Amino acid sequence: MIEAKQLIRAFPIEKRKRPEHENYLRVSEFFYDSIQGEGINLGHPSAFLRLQGCSLDCVWCDTTEVWKQGNPYTFDELFSMMADSLIIPSLKNGQHLVLTGGSPLLQQDHLVEFLYQFQKRFHFKPYTEIENECSLFPTSVMSQYIDCWNNSPKLDSSGNPYQKRYNPLVIVDAASYRNSWFKFVITKPEDWYEIDSMFLKTRYIDRSQVILMPEGATKAEVDANTEMVVQLAIREGVLFRTREHIVLWDKKIGI
């Protein structure tokens, strides 16, 4: 079994106090030498900085037990861990840094400073992706650090209230960024009508930005939905991507 290299493991026993006078991030887990499991960059070697907290709570989320946990780590602690590992040469060699959650944009002010200080300390900026559930506006400064936007607006099947999961102004803003994609988790063929009516016919996003993925928190669930989603993507002329991390590792975390 392929194992990613861990800097911060999920479910740490310790409970750390929030630093009083230092910049920090609330981190759930941090690992590298894995692959991107979703979206346009599926299969690309990647490091994952998973941040604690989410603005939504999807009924089918496959990382709920992880992003609800976490601890504060100062920038100096994170940079020291990174300097003592092989993550820096991996990122220099093209591994992507994926900011994920939960909702990374909940901590975007701290993230901006973290990425600025990373570049200042290590003298390069890694190719940076961000997961974005389209419920929060990115700041203009935050957007300058992101090379790929993996937007995941939620449909009714997510179980989130309409007012929390659907914000047209945020969606239009997200669609305007360079290299911006919209991943939709599909539970049934009828989900397409919601995508079509709320995102495409409104012209909030372009059809070429749409990626369909099968719902499933386990390999068996993803496999069961894959054929249906492939047929839907073919019918509608949009991209299909599996959820490769689940196909490869099932429910295992930290990979």
Description:
The structure is a single chain. With 255 residues, the chain is an alpha/beta fold. The protein has one domain (23-249): Aldolase class I (TIM Barrel). It is built from ten helices and ten strands. It has helices at 64-67, 75-83, 87-92, 108-122, 140-144, 162-165, 168-175, 191-200, 219-236, 244-249, and strands at residues 5-8, 24-35, 45-51, 71-74, 96-100, 128-132, 148-151, 180-186, 210-214, 239-240. Strands 1, 2, 3, 4, 5, 6, 7, 8, 9 and 10 form a ten-stranded mixed β-sheet that branches. The longest helix is centred in the last third of the chain and has 18 residues, at 219-236. The protein starts with a strand and ends in a 6-residue tail after the last helix. The mean pLDDT is 94.
Total count of helical runs of at least 4 residues: 10
Low-confidence segments = none
Number of domains: 1
Alpha-carbon distance between the two ends: 10 Å
- What's the CATH first level? Alpha Beta
Task: Give the mean pLDDT.
Answer: 94
By CATH's scheme, which homologous superfamily applies?
Aldolase class I
Report strand %: 15-25%
Structural class: alpha/beta
Helical amount: 25-40%
Order of helices and strands: EEEHEHHEHEHEHHEHEHEH
- Rg over alpha carbons: 18 Å
For the secondary structure, the number of strands is 10
Annotated CATH architecture? Alpha-Beta Barrel
Shape: globular
Would you give the CATH topology?
TIM Barrel
